[in-house]
Protein backbone atom coordinates (compact mmCIF):
# COMPACT_ATOMS: atom_id res chain seq x y z
CA UNK A 1 0.00 0.00 0.00
CA UNK A 2 1.52 3.39 -0.98
CA UNK A 3 2.41 5.72 1.87
CA UNK A 4 0.85 9.16 2.13
CA UNK A 5 2.02 12.48 3.58
CA UNK A 6 -0.33 14.58 5.65
CA UNK A 7 -0.50 16.98 8.57
CA UNK A 8 -2.32 15.92 11.74
CA UNK A 9 -3.18 17.52 15.06
CA UNK A 10 -1.64 16.58 18.38
CA UNK A 11 -4.50 15.65 20.71
CA UNK A 12 -2.63 14.56 23.83
CA UNK A 13 0.99 14.31 24.90
CA UNK A 14 1.91 12.46 28.09
CA UNK A 15 5.23 12.29 29.92
CA UNK A 16 5.55 8.71 31.20
CA UNK A 17 9.15 8.93 32.46
CA UNK A 18 12.01 11.42 32.14
CA UNK A 19 12.65 10.23 28.57
CA UNK A 20 9.48 8.39 27.46
CA UNK A 21 6.51 10.13 25.86
CA UNK A 22 3.10 8.93 24.65
CA UNK A 23 1.66 11.16 21.93
CA UNK A 24 -1.86 10.84 20.52
CA UNK A 25 -2.65 12.42 17.16
CA UNK A 26 -5.64 12.52 14.85
CA UNK A 27 -5.74 10.04 11.96
CA UNK A 28 -8.99 10.30 9.97
CA UNK A 29 -7.65 8.30 7.00
CA UNK A 30 -9.45 5.02 7.63
CA UNK A 31 -8.50 3.98 4.09
CA UNK A 32 -4.86 4.02 5.28
CA UNK A 33 -5.23 2.07 8.50
CA UNK A 34 -1.78 1.09 9.86
CA UNK A 35 -0.98 -2.46 10.90
CA UNK A 36 1.09 -3.71 13.81
CA UNK A 37 4.78 -3.34 13.06
CA UNK A 38 4.38 -0.47 10.60
CA UNK A 39 5.75 3.00 11.29
CA UNK A 40 5.47 6.65 10.28
CA UNK A 41 8.11 9.26 9.54
CA UNK A 42 7.40 12.15 11.94
CA UNK A 43 8.45 15.77 11.53
CA UNK A 44 7.41 19.03 13.19
CA UNK A 45 10.11 21.36 11.87
CA UNK A 46 10.72 22.97 8.44
CA UNK A 47 12.61 21.05 5.77
CA UNK A 48 15.44 23.58 5.80
CA UNK A 49 15.91 23.40 9.57
CA UNK A 50 18.12 20.85 11.35
CA UNK A 51 17.89 17.98 11.91
CA UNK A 52 17.70 17.08 8.23
CA UNK A 53 15.90 13.77 8.63
CA UNK A 54 12.41 13.00 9.90
CA UNK A 55 12.13 10.49 12.72
CA UNK A 56 10.76 6.94 12.18
CA UNK A 57 8.38 6.04 15.02
CA UNK A 58 6.43 2.78 15.18
CA UNK A 59 2.67 2.65 15.66
CA UNK A 60 1.92 1.97 19.32
CA UNK A 61 -1.84 1.93 18.86
CA UNK A 62 -4.45 2.75 16.24
CA UNK A 63 -8.09 3.38 17.16
CA UNK A 64 -10.35 3.39 14.08
CA UNK A 65 -13.40 4.47 16.10
CA UNK A 66 -11.70 7.53 17.60
CA UNK A 67 -9.60 8.05 14.44
CA UNK A 68 -6.41 8.39 16.48
CA UNK A 69 -2.83 7.14 16.45
CA UNK A 70 -0.60 6.68 19.47
CA UNK A 71 3.19 6.97 19.31
CA UNK A 72 5.24 5.74 22.27
CA UNK A 73 8.79 7.01 21.85
CA UNK A 74 12.02 7.80 23.64
CA UNK A 75 13.59 11.27 23.65
CA UNK A 76 17.11 10.57 22.38
CA UNK A 77 18.32 13.56 20.34
CA UNK A 78 17.40 16.80 18.58
CA UNK A 79 14.59 15.34 16.49
CA UNK A 80 12.76 13.63 19.33
CA UNK A 81 13.41 16.67 21.56
CA UNK A 82 11.46 18.75 19.04
CA UNK A 83 8.68 16.14 19.01
CA UNK A 84 8.61 16.14 22.81
CA UNK A 85 7.99 19.91 22.81
CA UNK A 86 4.68 19.52 20.95
CA UNK A 87 1.49 20.31 22.87
CA UNK A 88 -2.18 19.58 22.09
CA UNK A 89 -3.28 21.67 19.13
CA UNK A 90 0.12 21.67 17.44
CA UNK A 91 0.54 20.31 13.93
CA UNK A 92 2.65 17.28 13.09
CA UNK A 93 3.64 16.00 9.63
CA UNK A 94 3.36 12.26 9.02
CA UNK A 95 4.50 10.06 6.15
CA UNK A 96 3.19 6.51 6.24
CA UNK A 97 2.06 3.99 7.19
CA UNK A 98 5.35 2.48 6.01
CA UNK A 99 7.02 -0.89 6.13
CA UNK A 100 5.76 -4.44 6.36
CA UNK A 101 4.25 -5.32 9.70
CA UNK A 102 3.59 -8.55 11.57
CA UNK A 103 1.50 -11.26 9.92
CA UNK A 104 -1.33 -11.62 12.42
CA UNK A 105 -3.13 -14.24 10.32
CA UNK A 106 -0.09 -16.51 10.66
CA UNK A 107 -0.58 -16.56 14.43
CA UNK A 108 -4.22 -17.66 14.36
CA UNK A 109 -4.84 -20.67 16.56
CA UNK A 110 -1.21 -20.84 17.72
CA UNK A 111 0.49 -20.45 21.08
CA UNK A 112 2.13 -17.02 20.76
CA UNK A 113 4.60 -15.10 22.93
CA UNK A 114 5.45 -11.43 22.56
CA UNK A 115 8.89 -10.40 23.81
CA UNK A 116 9.84 -6.74 24.13
CA UNK A 117 12.72 -4.77 25.56
CA UNK A 118 12.68 -1.09 26.52
CA UNK A 119 11.21 1.20 23.89
CA UNK A 120 11.07 -1.87 21.64
CA UNK A 121 7.85 -2.71 23.47
CA UNK A 122 6.15 0.16 21.63
CA UNK A 123 4.85 -1.70 18.52
CA UNK A 124 3.86 -4.77 20.53
CA UNK A 125 0.71 -3.20 21.97
CA UNK A 126 -0.91 -2.75 18.55
CA UNK A 127 0.22 -6.29 17.76
CA UNK A 128 -1.34 -7.62 20.97
CA UNK A 129 -4.61 -5.85 20.13
CA UNK A 130 -4.74 -7.26 16.61
CA UNK A 131 -3.95 -10.75 17.87
CA UNK A 132 -6.66 -10.49 20.52
CA UNK A 133 -9.20 -9.29 17.94
CA UNK A 134 -8.26 -12.32 15.82
CA UNK A 135 -8.93 -14.65 18.75
CA UNK A 136 -5.36 -15.16 20.01
CA UNK A 137 -4.35 -13.88 23.43
CA UNK A 138 -0.56 -13.90 23.40
CA UNK A 139 1.60 -14.07 26.51
CA UNK A 140 3.70 -10.95 26.99
CA UNK A 141 7.27 -10.85 28.30
CA UNK A 142 8.91 -7.45 28.71
CA UNK A 143 12.26 -6.25 29.97
CA UNK A 144 13.36 -2.81 31.17
CA UNK A 145 16.49 -1.39 32.77
CA UNK A 146 14.52 -0.14 35.77
CA UNK A 147 11.06 1.41 35.94
CA UNK A 148 8.63 -0.14 33.41
CA UNK A 149 6.14 1.89 31.38
CA UNK A 150 3.08 1.17 29.26
CA UNK A 151 2.42 -2.25 30.81
CA UNK A 152 -1.11 -1.60 32.03
CA UNK A 153 -2.57 -1.68 28.53
CA UNK A 154 -1.26 -5.17 27.82
CA UNK A 155 -3.14 -6.86 30.67
CA UNK A 156 -6.47 -6.46 28.85
CA UNK A 157 -5.38 -7.94 25.52
CA UNK A 158 -2.78 -10.54 26.57
CA UNK A 159 -2.78 -13.73 28.57
CA UNK A 160 0.18 -13.99 30.93
CA UNK A 161 2.20 -10.79 31.48
CA UNK A 162 5.70 -11.06 32.95
CA UNK A 163 8.25 -8.36 33.70
CA UNK A 164 12.03 -8.43 34.13
CA UNK A 165 14.25 -5.49 35.08
CA UNK A 166 18.02 -5.09 35.22
CA UNK A 167 17.76 -3.26 38.55
CA UNK A 168 15.46 -5.78 40.21
CA UNK A 169 13.27 -3.00 41.64
CA UNK A 170 10.33 -4.25 39.58
CA UNK A 171 9.43 -7.78 38.58
CA UNK A 172 12.07 -10.46 38.03
CA UNK A 173 15.67 -9.40 38.62
CA UNK A 174 17.42 -10.36 35.41
CA UNK A 175 16.93 -10.58 31.66
CA UNK A 176 13.60 -11.10 29.95
CA UNK A 177 15.14 -14.07 28.16
CA UNK A 178 15.32 -15.84 31.52
CA UNK A 179 11.52 -15.72 31.76
CA UNK A 180 10.81 -16.98 28.26
CA UNK A 181 10.39 -20.70 27.63
CA UNK A 182 10.12 -20.84 23.83
CA UNK A 183 9.37 -24.57 23.81
CA UNK A 184 5.94 -23.65 25.21
CA UNK A 185 5.07 -21.62 22.10
CA UNK A 186 4.57 -22.13 18.39
CA UNK A 187 5.59 -18.57 17.53
CA UNK A 188 7.61 -15.83 19.25
CA UNK A 189 7.29 -12.21 18.06
CA UNK A 190 10.00 -9.90 19.27
CA UNK A 191 11.10 -6.26 19.28
CA UNK A 192 13.81 -4.56 21.30
CA UNK A 193 17.58 -4.08 21.48
CA UNK A 194 19.34 -6.24 18.90
CA UNK A 195 21.41 -8.21 21.46
CA UNK A 196 18.18 -9.15 23.23
CA UNK A 197 16.51 -10.20 19.96
CA UNK A 198 19.53 -12.27 18.99
CA UNK A 199 19.35 -14.01 22.37
CA UNK A 200 15.62 -14.69 21.93
CA UNK A 201 16.22 -16.00 18.41
CA UNK A 202 18.95 -18.34 19.69
CA UNK A 203 16.66 -19.74 22.38
CA UNK A 204 13.89 -20.27 19.82
CA UNK A 205 16.22 -21.92 17.32
CA UNK A 206 17.41 -24.38 19.95
CA UNK A 207 13.89 -25.77 20.42
CA UNK A 208 12.54 -25.29 16.90
CA UNK A 209 10.16 -22.42 17.66
CA UNK A 210 9.77 -19.87 14.89
CA UNK A 211 10.90 -16.37 15.85
CA UNK A 212 9.93 -13.12 14.10
CA UNK A 213 11.80 -9.91 14.92
CA UNK A 214 11.26 -6.22 14.21
CA UNK A 215 14.50 -4.36 13.47
CA UNK A 216 15.37 -0.76 14.24
CA UNK A 217 17.60 1.30 11.95
CA UNK A 218 18.30 4.95 11.29
CA UNK A 219 16.23 5.94 8.25
CA UNK A 220 16.38 8.79 5.78
CA UNK A 221 13.46 8.35 3.38
CA UNK A 222 11.39 5.58 4.99
CA UNK A 223 10.24 4.22 1.61
CA UNK A 224 13.24 2.25 0.33
CA UNK A 225 14.56 4.88 -2.09
CA UNK A 226 17.84 5.86 -0.42
CA UNK A 227 19.00 2.39 0.75
CA UNK A 228 20.34 4.00 3.92
CA UNK A 229 18.78 1.42 6.23
CA UNK A 230 19.97 -1.70 4.42
CA UNK A 231 20.61 -4.73 6.61
CA UNK A 232 22.46 -7.94 5.77
CA UNK A 233 20.34 -11.06 5.37
CA UNK A 234 20.87 -14.64 4.25
CA UNK A 235 19.75 -13.62 0.75
CA UNK A 236 21.61 -10.29 0.51
CA UNK A 237 20.90 -6.70 1.49
CA UNK A 238 17.32 -5.75 2.43
CA UNK A 239 15.84 -2.34 3.16
CA UNK A 240 14.53 -2.33 6.72
CA UNK A 241 12.07 0.47 5.94
CA UNK A 242 10.46 -1.13 2.88
CA UNK A 243 11.11 -4.89 3.11
CA UNK A 244 11.01 -4.87 6.91
CA UNK A 245 11.14 -3.86 9.63
CA UNK A 246 9.67 -7.30 10.41
CA UNK A 247 11.78 -10.32 9.39
CA UNK A 248 12.13 -13.99 10.23
CA UNK A 249 14.99 -14.16 12.74
CA UNK A 250 16.79 -16.82 10.67
CA UNK A 251 16.90 -14.42 7.73
CA UNK A 252 18.62 -11.59 9.60
CA UNK A 253 20.48 -13.42 12.40
CA UNK A 254 21.15 -16.79 10.77
CA UNK A 255 20.39 -20.19 12.22
Note the main attributes of this structure.
Elongation Factor Tu (Ef-tu), domain 3, alpha/beta, 2 domains, 16 strands, 255 residues, 5 helices, single chain, seven-stranded mixed beta sheet, Rossmann fold, seven-stranded antiparallel beta sheet
Explain what the structure shows.
With 255 residues, the chain is an alpha/beta fold. The chain folds into two domains: 4-98, Elongation Factor Tu (Ef-tu), domain 3 (Beta Barrel); 104-253, Nucleotide-binding domain of ferredoxin-NADP reductase (FNR) module (Rossmann fold, 3-Layer(aba) Sandwich). It has five helices and 16 strands. It has a seven-stranded antiparallel sheet with strand order 4-3-7-1-2-6-5. It has a seven-stranded mixed sheet with strand order 11-10-9-8-12-13-16. A two-stranded antiparallel sheet has the order 14-15. It is globular, with a radius of gyration of 17 Å. The two termini are 31 Å apart. Belongs to the PyrK family. Its cofactor is FAD; [2Fe-2S] cluster.
| CATH T-level fold name of the largest domain | Rossmann fold
- Within CATH, the superfamily of the largest domain carries the name Nucleotide-binding domain of ferredoxin-NADP reductase (FNR) module
Identify the overall geometry. globular
N-to-C terminal Cα separation, in Å? 31 Å
Number of helices: 5
**Under the CATH scheme, which architecture of the largest domain would be assigned?**
3-Layer(aba) Sandwich
Give the low-pLDDT segments.
Answer: none
Give a quick summary of the entry.
The chain is an alpha/beta fold. The protein is built from five helices and 16 strands. Helix content is 16%, strand content 34%.
